[in-house]
Amino acid sequence: MCGIVGYAGSGDAPQILIEALKRLEYRGYDSAGIAVQENGGLTIHKKQGRISVMEETLPKLKAKVGIGHTRWATHGEPSDANAHPQVDSSGDIAVIHNGTLENYADLRSRMEAAGIEFNSGTDTEVLPHLIARHYDGNLLAAVRAALGEVTGAYAIVVLHAAHPGEIVAARNESPLVVGFGEGENFLASDAPAIVKYTQRVAYVHNGELVRITADSVEISDMAGETREPEIEELEWTVEDAEQGGYAHFMLKEIFEQPRALQESLLPTLAEAIVEGLDLNWRIGSISIVACGTSFHAGLVGKYVIEQLTAIPVNVCHASEFRYSPPVQNVGGMLSARPLVVLVSQSGETADTLAAARVARQQGSHTVAICNVGGSSLAREVDGILLTRAGPEIGVAATKTFMVQMQALYMLAVHLAYSRKSMDQPQLRRWEQELRRLPHYVSQVLERHTAISKLAGTLQSARSIFFIGRNLSYPVALEGALKLKEISYLHAEGYPAGELKHGPLALLSPETPVVAIMSPDHTHSKLVSNIEEVAARKAPLLLVAQEGDADAQRLSPHVITVPATDPVLLPFTAGVALQLLAYHVADALGCEIDKPRNLAKSVTVE
């Protein structure tokens, strides 16, 4: 979950590295550091804390080649000593690393027995010592040999004092991208880090190494076989990765949701919608596999897919999926195969990638819903349904939640139509409703000020419950997640019908409840649940569609969203709860874009 960058060219390397690291700070912000080639050696500067802390103490450096790192601690507490780069005993080799080395403890104990002294508590520090042991003048060969002794996930970038103008990098299970400039080349863990400098990129594959200079890029595998880089043009612009005058990236990304929905919508759902895969086969069951916010999008998708297709759907946490992959031949349908839909914003989530491999080993068809076409996940699956939300910098997912739900709705409609459980008029109605989504979301955004005024009903609470039924239940889960991750208030999403099975014992005048009211067949039951809450004197904040008389009767605090088909409530209520969480966190003075202990892309298990 760390951010890594490298630069070789004729520009101001320290400034370019710092600028790129700032665009990766969502990946980690416990500490930061850079290493540059200067005066025939390496100059290293690193500090605990945000990149700004390191930048403020950075001496004037004149360098054209360097590497940089922003850290999210996994091995060793945040400290100057544990910050990257890590170096070997001579100080000639500097390494930055994203990932976890599973056998580092054994490697370290053997090195210590051989007299090598360690200066940090990180797993990374074994790497420069390993490289030094194998080094005989060829840096690329030394890195390749060192990695032959390592097990685990990594993206590493290596700088050597005796190799001016050269950087060597490698990846296994952690993302790495090469950027191609004019007389300069770049390395990064994520493309947004370098989009200011180039839009021409190539993704490094698992088990590959890359050597860059200002004028060349060489990609090879662990056996030394080389391949030509597959260069592609990024669709993102530098403006997409900028804050654009908003107080926070999260707020900007909330307001970008109408455009994200518009750009991710496919023109027709009657024809094949998954790139690289024909879905017109017999599907026995569907598993939606995801983490965090993507898991909540999957829960919404389950309701819609089952409603439209009658195919049983299971939604699994990616971290648990490998222990219970889908059973073949569901219901005795020997010709049917499970479909596994893997949902990930980055396409680099470690648990989701592991789940994709398990699914394929089990013989399942696999489809990814992903926002990055060149990601590791996109290369692991049979087909991809690409969302086009653009870069999402804020740690709390917002617009990717919207487009993931939209993609699952499109998948549901396509499956229903192709299986003849939906006729042409029904298809047209669904396509029309999905085309209206950007407008409905824009209407919620217009109520931004009114929602901000309701933040005060929650900001003094110690604990908050979010409740819903049917489609509004996963929205309650997502609303609770958004609030807890950026405001640090304890929030819990719960099925409203389960209140009597425990949570009612926790309700009091100091425990607000947020209820998401859907105008469907569950409405009257949810009203009864809300009245139970009111009887315990718990403050109520309701999210309801316009014209809901029960909502106005039950509480003076109501967020109204446009009246739509009930199946679209997750979109309108979801945006409202994002704004609510944002304003609560803002009123509390929280670090909204970079909440403590969290990182954007969870690339370690």
UniProtKB/TrEMBL annotation:
It catalyses: D-fructose 6-phosphate + L-glutamine = D-glucosamine 6-phosphate + L-glutamate. One of its GO terms (molecular function) is carbohydrate derivative binding. InterPro entries: GATase_2_dom, GFAT, GFAT_N, GlmS/AgaS_SIS, GlmS/FrlB_SIS, Ntn_hydrolases_N, SIS_dom, SIS_dom_sf. Residues 2-215 form the Glutamine amidotransferase type-2 domain. The active site is at C2, K600. Its main location: cytoplasm. It comes from the Archaea. Its EC number is 2.6.1.16. Residues 269-421, 454-595 form the SIS domain. Keywords: Aminotransferase, Cytoplasm, Glutamine amidotransferase, Repeat, Transferase. Pfam families: GATase_6 (PF13522), SIS (PF01380). One of its GO terms (biological process) is fructose 6-phosphate metabolic process. NCBIfam families: glmS, PRK00331.1. This is Glutamine--fructose-6-phosphate aminotransferase [isomerizing]. The gene is glmS.
